[in-house]
Design brief:
Blueprint lengths: L3 H11 L21 H8 L3 H8 L8 H10 L4 H11 L16 H9 L5 E4 L5 E4 L1 H7 L11 H6 L11 H18 L4 H13 L1 H8 L8 E8 L3 E12 L2 E9 L6 H14 L4
Antiparallel strand pairs: 1-2, 1-5, 3-4, 4-5
Helix pairs in contact: 2-3, 2-4, 4-5, 7-12, 9-11, 10-11
């Protein structure tokens, strides 16, 4: 995903005013935030070096330089890790598509979680496996296999926007997490195709992708407006699977005895009831 390093650095220096880092601001600026020359000065590198780095044509950059730039741009830990990933991508190899299956033991683990929706995602947030309650909640089995993806569902599928009352926040978090994954997998063909499709078809996605926000969404709370079960408040935890670090187990953990837990139990009973 060419240009990520330069775009990311430009977006981060644009959000910092000179006064915030002890620099005087003289006259009108053509662009918001810090100039490249000011970042270079504060980071202790030459202007030419920093410009070449931002243009993606610099030499291999050291940890010390990246740490200095991260300090100047006030990056948080997640942003700092993303900077390292895009500044020093792995040597290009022939892209290979991942096997779309999870280990049988992981599927058994999913199926044993009868009271909690759970599913497994790949690095492009493609849905690789799920349990019955996860399917009842988000409808994975009704999606075509090639389109079974959390991000695609959110931005492109009919009803995706209506599923989340807090759509704007969920969309921003999802894109920030996808960009973090893209930085760690720069040559992943599945991710490239997904970002290309979403950029072409969704104005909301294009706008959020251009913000260059990065965030690891490994836990939190989502509200889901289910067409049958109604409004559900769902805390979630995400765990990287051992031996398969590209796969993430996501489990929704409603408070025991809560209205959401009761509604999920009814949803599970309704979905498992035989048709008449």
């Amino acid at each position: 995903m060419d240009g990520d390093l330069g775009d990311f650095l430009r977006s981060r220096r644009a959000r910092i005013q000179p006064e915030e880092v002890g620099l005087a601001s003289y006259g009108r600026r053509r662009v918001p935030g810090l100039r490249r020359e000011e970042v270079a000065q504060l980071a202790g590198v030459s202007v030419d070096y920093y410009i070449r780095l931002e243009q993606g044509r610099g030499p291999s950059v050291s940890d010390a330089v990246l740490d200095a730039i991260a300090r100047v741009l006030r990056l948080d830990d997640t942003e700092h890790a993303y900077l390292r990933a895009v500044a020093r991508p792995p040597k290009k190899q022939t892209p290979r598509r991942r096997a779309p299956r999870v280990r049988p033991g992981v599927q058994l683990l999913l199926d044993s979680m009868e009271r909690t929706p759970a599913f497994v995602l790949g690095p492009g947030m493609e849905v690789l496996a799920w349990n019955a309650l996860g399917d009842a909640l988000l409808g994975f089995s009704r999606m075509a296999p090639a389109r079974r993806n959390i991000v695609r569902q959110l931005f492109l599928e009919p009803g995706g926007r209506d599923l989340y009352p807090d759509y704007a926040a969920v969309a921003a978090q999802t894109v920030a997490h996808l960009r973090l994954s893209a930085g760690a997998h720069p040559d992943d063909p599945v991710l490239r195709d997904l970002v290309g499709e979403l950029s072409l078809k969704s104005e909301d996605f294009r706008r959020l992708w251009a913000d260059h926000q990065v965030r690891a969404c490994m836990y939190g709370v989502k509200r889901v407006q289910h067409p049958v079960a109604g409004l559900l408040t769902l805390p979630y935890e995400s765990l990287t699977l051992p031996e398969t670090p590209d796969q993430t187990l996501v489990v929704y953990t409603p408070e025991p005895g809560s209205e959401t837990a009761e509604r999920l139990q009814l949803l599970g009973s309704w979905e498992s009831a035989p048709a008449h």
